[in-house]
Amino acid sequence: MVDQKLVCTAIIVWGAIACAAPTTTPAKISKSSVVPSTCSFVEKPMISDEITINENTVGTISNYAVGVVNVGERELPDDKGVIAPRISAILAILDPSTKQSHDEDVFAGSVISLGTDRYCVVHVDGGNSKYGSVTLRKIP
Known about the structure:
The protein is mainly beta. The chain is built from 1 helix and 8 strands.
């Protein structure tokens, strides 16, 4: 069982650190930089296999604790290496079985792996003066 108070505290700390960090990448990125894999999707109205996590909250997906923090615009590369401003979020991911965590910058079309499951980021809602959210769809 994941200690929800610990996870929430970790998410808040990660959010504070992320908010203090600059939100743009340097203009020059080496060709050897890793670019995120992206998925193609057709955005449809909310369907049952989609999971939405609101900013500053934690959801459980594939037995991982996944928190959403720092929704906003940042310059990020797509799968072809094209850097552009994108509405994005930081996912704070905790594997409760190993107690290891990591962060991932995601935007619509990003793919994340949680154990053996893969998820496509269908939508990142910037929030418009309120908290944002991230919607994920499991890739079959």
